[in-house]
Amino acid sequence: MTQVTNTVRFVLDGQIVEAQGERRTTTVLDYLREQLHRTGTKEGCAEGDCGACVVMVGELNAAGTGVDYVATNACIQLLPSLDGKSVKTVESLKKADGTLHPVQAEMVKCHGSQCGFCTPGIVMSLVNLVQVLPMPNRQQITDSLSGNLCRCTGYKPIIESATKACAKPEGLKIDDSADVPLLKEIKRASVPTLSLDGDIIVQPVVRTKKGNEFVSPATIAEVADYLVKNPTTTLLAGSTEIGLQVNKQFARPDHIMYLGNVAELRQVKETDKAWRIGAAVSLTQVEALIAEAYPDFAEVLRRFGSPPIRSTATLAGNIANGSPIGDSMPCLLALGANLVLRRGEKTRNVLLDNFYTGMKKNVLEAGEFIEAVELPKPVAGQVFRAHKVSKRFEQDISATCAAISYTLQGGKLSGVKLAYNGLSPFPARAPQLEAVLEGKTPADVKAADLDAAIAASFTARDGLRATWGYRALVARNLALEFIEEQTKEVA
Asked: Which residues contact 63 (CB under 8 A, 6 or more apart)?
């Protein structure tokens, strides 16, 4: 892609679409509806919450023989991030002879739609699910629908529709054979462009007359070089935060860099002691990665937004965003996660404990970015517990989320790391509470001592999602809950 063409190219149902002259912050939803008249994709919340806008975004698989899809909220994804990819909308499902996809057909038969506004997004979430799980169980079906809100039909007939559709697995797979050669044709370069002097030139996908750009590099060297030259660049990974800023605050960053095509940032490397998780690895991938070792962490991630959010959002993005109620950070803090920060060709390691300096503030220098998150693997005897408390179980913001890691040495708590969100301007460990727990048998820990430590550790403040009294009580009770099982074992 060159700055001369200023064109975003993607594949839609066996054809290459060339989007020219569009703004850098045009959303996929707006382009589908307004330019391609794919009006089955709806705008409900414009926040990635309701699921009415779900589409499937695909990339060539590793073998180059097919397409791997993820369900995506079109309302918060920026159009230039589609360059080199493919899209399927609800209109893509109908075959040439007019036959509906089995999920659509069963939605009709089971009366799974009333007003119909949410139905296309529901159908796309289910169709995306059955591309990889042609025989999902009920839990997997309901999980896939956790980001789709229906206000009039009710979910019983929708779930019944999915179950009946999966009884005919032969018709569930989307035929994308015509898309594969086209994806190869528009595939983005995997090596950087160099000047005659050997300097890196990051070619923009979109550039305005004022020189504002949307770039989509393929290598980490390009990322580092561009950020040194343009340190105020907005980094875009899952767009779950930037999409909100574009839609709700009308943000128009001068320079936007999409990290989704950087191979090095999408890798997970493993040693005997830790996982090195690249900055563009999605939360869905992280959830699967740590499910066996840290099931409580995986459960916290399962309740993080919805499948379309988790399929695009990244662990590094959640950390960099630095929200006071960021859900992944308490788990990472309790597990002693380390961040690999890079500026130019230099890297440094910073414990997550030392990363935040204030509300939405951190130690990143100009032009520096998170290259990877290093997550230690469990050691013998380690106990890890985590739990998120929110008003709704699914897809809700925390009142608080707590996580703890410890071992038992001679029946006493040892190496205690306890972390919370929602209690301070940024997610943080609670050293005074750790001191209350450290060296004690679980039965000797007193609620009053924890209450005093909470009062001494945090500034009391009410919030939109909970009063301070509620949060403080929950923080104490979670700490007690996390060690209660050891009390029972000792007894």
From this structure: none
